[in-house]
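Researcher: Quick sanity check before group meeting.
Model: Go ahead. Protein one:
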Amino acid sequence: MDEEVNGILVAAHELKAPLAVLRQLALSFGEMDEKDEHIRSEMISVSERAIKQVNDLAKIRRLEDGLFEMEPVSVRVVCDAVTRELEYLFNHNKRELFIKYSNRSQLVVANKDLLYSVVYNFLLNAMHYSGEGTRAELVVRDCYDKVRIMVRDYGPALPMDVWREMKRGWVAKPTSIAMRPGSSGLGLFIASRFSRYMNAAVGAVRHRDGTSFYVELPSSKQASLF
């Protein structure tokens, strides 16, 4: 891991404590009127998402230790869990989330926690980059002997340099993404690193009206227990 990326991960770790304090302060307020309650709810939500990304960055530092076990994982169970967590955020920001499962292979070889983070970060990107009243799409389908999880947004086009990095299979470090305000590319950085650890192919497709990000995982031949 190069020095610059390691520095980013160390800095992110230092942010965890103040983020946790911010969340706790928001939770400690007494009764509020409707407007202030909405602000408190937003503070808690934003701090929790930030803490989640800090935790993901901490996991990146531990990937080299090989602590994340690979096993048969139900793709639909993971995707359902992620969409349940982000449902409020999509509704609150007036974005529609369309979900389509057409995969016959129910299980993939993956790490459940890492796969959850990959899908979570792709969907969070889609929520941020789709305009109000538009929709994002989560599609799961078979792709030869693999299962492809694809998230499509209808935001600004992905810059060519970021697309090339995704085509190569991983993002070297978090970078700003022009025409996609508020993005450091952090979610793509996390998703690409976790996918690489799981030996999963990751990439992006540029459209005239948005971008599709995907991860492809080998299907597991073990009989489904779900």
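Researcher: Fine. The other one?
Model: Protein two, sequence then structure:
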Amino acid sequence: MNTNPWSLPKDRALRRLLVSLDEQIGEACDIAPDQGDDPAIVTLRHAELEKLRAHVYLHGQRPGTYGVFFEYPHPVPGMLETEENLPLAKALASLSLHFDA
């Protein structure tokens, strides 16, 4: 991963996810530059495919869970675009699958 997750001005829950993600698939994705200063959302992008992204957010989620919105380089009919209220382990599994690590 291109950034130390603990140095980001993000919610502690997101930093925890990023640290765990870095241990699993840190080579496959990077943290995209922030478009704002919202501490409850972070955007990840594939290390080589700029348009393969995932937005991880806490807004509207049950405590201790994550929402993930997936972006693909090309439209993929029938592919899941959003998952909500995922516990940490399931969020990590979904992101690993998305970035194909």
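Researcher: One line on it for the slide.
Model: The longest strand covers residues 41-46.
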